[in-house]
Amino acid sequence: MMRKIGTAVALLLLVVGVFFAFAGQGSETMLLPVEGKYGAVDLPHWDHQESLGDCNACHGLFPQEAGAIDRLKTEKALKKKQVMNNCRGCHRSMTKAGKASGPIKCFDCHAAG
Ligand code: HEC
Ligand code: HEC
Ligand code: HEC
């Protein structure tokens, strides 16, 4: 019995440990530069790491590296708004499913509203 409880506690600590090791990587928040009239976009990076639990929800499109989006857009490896459509698409489908998510309207993301 005690042994089972011990195992359960060890497992719980492991899960909690993995969770905290997982979130909180890279910048806590960032301001993604966008040229033109729409303006930069805020991204609460750590909040997303925590709530999504999946780096590849975004990093499937670009590596975990500052400036990666702009570099890949210049190299034409990412289309204009491709990353944006991924952000917005997720917010839209979660909202439709009745879950809390992020902005869908242009100037709820872009600063120059
Ligand atoms: C909601 C989208 C999103 C998720 C989810 C996400 N990231 Fe990021 N991450 C970004 C963006 C955007 C950048 C900046 C890319 C750029 O500057 O072009 C970035 C940059 C980074 C960087 C480079 C340093 C920095 O902060 O600028 C690291 C390291 C990083 N992410 C790690 C992670 C890890 C580890 C996870 C999962 C635990 C994760 N990210 C989940 C969007 C995300
Ligand atoms: C969830 C946040 C979000 C919403 C909502 C959003 N955007 Fe964006 N937008 C971004 C991000 C992030 C980028 C930079 C990455 C990219 O270009 O994919 C961007 C980039 C852009 C660009 C620059 C593309 C380029 O490479 O020249 C334009 C123009 C733009 N958005 C217009 C809009 C318009 C119009 C709307 C409303 C219909 C909108 N955005 C809604 C996040 C958002
Ligand atoms: C796979 C789903 C998903 C993707 C991709 C995603 N988000 Fe979100 N976003 C969420 C969820 C869930 C929340 C609400 C919970 C939270 O804050 O983490 C949210 C919340 C937000 C908020 C509101 C935060 C607040 O404090 O009100 C902003 C701003 C935002 N996202 C911007 C972005 C941008 C910019 C991108 C793309 C670079 C992005 N998101 C990509 C799921 C996503």
TrEMBL record:
Q: List each copy of the Class III cytochrome C domain by range.
A: 46-110
Which InterPro entries has this protein been placed in? Cyt_c_III_dom (IPR020942), Multihaem_cyt_sf (IPR036280)
Keywords, in A-Z order: Electron transport, Heme, Iron, Metal-binding, Transport
Gene3D superfamilies named in the record: Cytochrome C3
The family database entries (SUPFAM superfamilies) matched by this protein are listed as: Multiheme cytochromes (SSF48695)
Source organism, top-level taxon = Bacteria
Query: For this UniProt entry, which segments traverse the membrane?
Result: none
What name does this protein carry? Class III cytochrome C domain-containing protein
**Annotated source species:** Desulfoluna limicola
